[in-house]
Amino acid sequence: xxxxxxxxxxxxxxxxxxxxxxxxxxxxxxxxxxxxxxxxxxxxxxxxxxxxxxxxxxxxxxxxxxxxxxxxxxxxxxxxxxxxxxxxxxxxxxxxxxxxxxxxxxxxxxxxxxxxxxxxxxxxxxxxxxxxxxxxxxxxxxxxxxxxxxxxxxxxxxxxxxxxxxxxxxxxxxxxxxxxxxxxxxxxxxxxxxxxxxxxxxxxxxxxxxxxxxxxxxxxxxxxxxxxxxxxxxxxxxxxxxxxxxxxxxxxxxxxxxxxxxxxxxxxxxxxxxxxxxxxxxxxxxxxxxxxxxxxxxxxxxxxxxxxxxxxxxxxxxxxxxxxxxxxxxxxxxxxxxxxxxxxxxxxxxxxxxxxxxxx
Length: 360
Fold this sequence. Notes:
This protein has 360 residues and is α+β, with helices and mostly antiparallel strands. It folds into 2 domains: 27-172, no CATH class; 180-359. The protein has helices at residues 2-15, 45-56, 66-75, 77-83, 104-108, 175-190, 195-206, 211-233, 241-261, 269-291, 298-324, 331-359; strands at 27-33, 36-43, 84-88, 91-93, 96-100, 113-120, 127-132, 138-145, 151-156, 164-165. The strands form 2 sheets. Strands 5-6-2-1-8-9 form a 6-stranded mixed β-sheet. Strands 4-3-7-10 form a 4-stranded antiparallel β-sheet. Strand 8 and strand 9 form a beta hairpin. Helix 1 packs parallel to helix 12 and helix 8 crosses helix 10 (269-291).
């Protein structure tokens, strides 16, 4: 059993992302007016340099200052442009490349840098499309044609956007469409992209097989993260990501460690889940702050995002319940063979992430 746990830990640490949210800092804003285009891509400069060097076949730079990093990104502009395409009527154009690094203070706060691609719109062009070949997760592409409404497409990785007509401006999306988009965003932020949140929810599930207790904890978690998500998005509460992310990882480890030493739900469990939910809400807010919320449908987007997150969490619990149904027939064996080994794995992953995020 110990050997199995060690193998599982190794596999999880090898495959688990070091950063909590694949939606992270990447965002693209395309503006087309007066015969020209600009595409501003928000990027994590440290992650971008690593990706560019890997794409160029260059040995990764381990230690560097921000001045060196920013210069190297500019020097590797051709690598960036080779994998990023602006197309009109399906035909690529060659944009000018401009790197805009974050100011030193913002850099310490892990504020994204911006890469601007710009150039003329080909005469007679009818459609615009874009793909960012270096993207690893889902990101928002916000497109504005002339003075028309901003249209948002959610792009997965290096996939290309849907072609956008350059003629009459499209009407703004209705609340139903906004709700659908943000529900899907909330759900996919749990499954398959929110591995840290998945582990936290599984940690909640493992301690008890009683559905009333499980749902009470999940509901408490949801209420808590909804509160801080709303407060953070309205600018009333704010903590930097380099503080929130290690604390989220530590909350995962704590819940799992408690599962090892406690055999049933204690009165303080709900209070702990609530406090940890407040932290996770700030993590969710980091996602929405980067991709943006539509002003006319701010409340709709906020509510449906939370509903998507809740649906994702309940799906995780349903899968975990189905996977462990056979073992739950014998409570003692279930605790010895499932709960404790799985909790040890989750605790080790959570502690690993805590250190990684604190130092990274």
